Amino acid sequence: MKRIIECVPNFSEGREMEVIRLITEVIEKVEGIKLLNVDPGFATNRTVVTFAGEPEFVVEAAFQAIKKASELIDMRHHTGEHPRFGATDVCPLVPVSGITMEETVEYARVLAKRVGDELKIPVYCYEYAAFEPKRQSLANCRSGEYEGLPSKVVSKEWKPDFGPAEFNARSGAIAIGARNFLIAYNINLNTTSVRRANSIAFDVREAGRIQREGDPFTGKIIKSKDGEPIRIPGSLKKVRAIGWYIKEYRMAQISMNLTDITVTPVHVAFDEVCDKAAERGIRVTGSELIGVVPLKCMLDAGKYFLHKQKRSSGIPDEEIIEIAVRSLGLNELAPFDPKKRIIEYLLQEEQTDQLADLTLRKLTYETASDSPAPGGGSISAAVGALGAALGSMVANLSAHKRGWDEQWEMFSDWAEKGKMAYEQLLKLVDEDTHAFNAVMDAFGLAKDSPEQKESRRLAIQEATLKAIEVPFKVMNVAAGAIELLEKMAESGNPNSASDVAVGALCLRTAVSGAYLNVRINAAEIKDASLVAEVLIQADKLEKETIKRCEKIQKKVLLKICSK
Asked: 4-178: what CATH class?
């Protein structure tokens, strides 16, 4: 999975659009960065910018933006309603996919150190990047705001984590941290009553409500022995919520901030509001996600609702996302387009030359053309993907078979394993062709001087080793998927027995075809020791695969003939 993090810097400027443009311009100039949103606020005099990409690119873009803001924004003249203490007030990094929070913390601290060292701005690390508990809270780090910095940064208690322990009058200070993804999420109600919407919000939000005598809104506040109001906690952790009326839609909503979707994801919040609303005679009619969301958020929601229906989740991502959109009612107020609302999809580059994206007819024509690629390696991967897909199909059909309800979850798990295999094999379709083209490019390098000859030799060897590595991956992934076909031959839907056999034949072809590619490329490596271990493993894997697939064929034939 591609490693992606999101960055959401807040700049202390929301009125001068040219300043904001110059800051976002340096972000967009960094390779591999996608600017997702720019949200200026006049009253707050603050702009929230959202961008994402691979970690190294995000750290570079964040640094350049902080540097540009320090050049353009003078905190000595700043006023606004929002709490602030620096030109770039806060800069959180958020793990989106393929990266852990621990890794994200390291990137946040690398950024913090660079800002402190090169820009001479005092830096406080907060949330997961904090070095001590009291600095986890952004409010604590920013307490006293800009005006309190002269005494704060020189104090022992609040010495900056990075940068000079002295007041930077122009740029102030900055909080850099790592946090979980925050989602702004509104749930639509079939009422116009803000009071009833607030009642539901108080039921679910973590802070809950203040306990009162009689009327929950106007009754006398009940206090503890120390004089503090007693609170009744809500049912959802890491959730802030309030009820409001949206004139444009003529309905009340529960407006929520899900501050940690690893604790309370969207689908859990939605169902809990549905339950609490029903207790008050109110129905949820739909919901809306504000801004962009990670792919995992939508996949988790789709799988959650499929599992509630006892349906298999081993289906393509597009179908899982469609289930999520329908179940959450995300199309009620405006169309929800996954390509424009899911971060990973927004970051995908337009690739019109991907073999795996061609129609079957076009792939066939492309293979039949007079160019040497795509060749047997890519086709082996493609055939293997079809074999794994057949295995997933049988598992999905078995999960839905009448009378087999108790086994649906087991079959769903097998279908997901098949899905993982065919997704990997589809990627290897293109990887094999890229590897072949790299070998051809290496052969085309100049060889006029001894240095060029040696450089060319090493390039050919490196490219050829890659051309061995890719089909060897195909062998391993395809062989790994045979277990799925073995299981389906044994206990899958008997009406799909022939599909199991065809799937096994496809996987056998993939393994044997990829094996031949390993062998033909290994023959070009002069130093046999470089490929000896791979060849031993490949020989063993091909022999084992043939035996396993022959057993599947016999088992399927017995089933068919016994009908």
From this structure: alpha beta
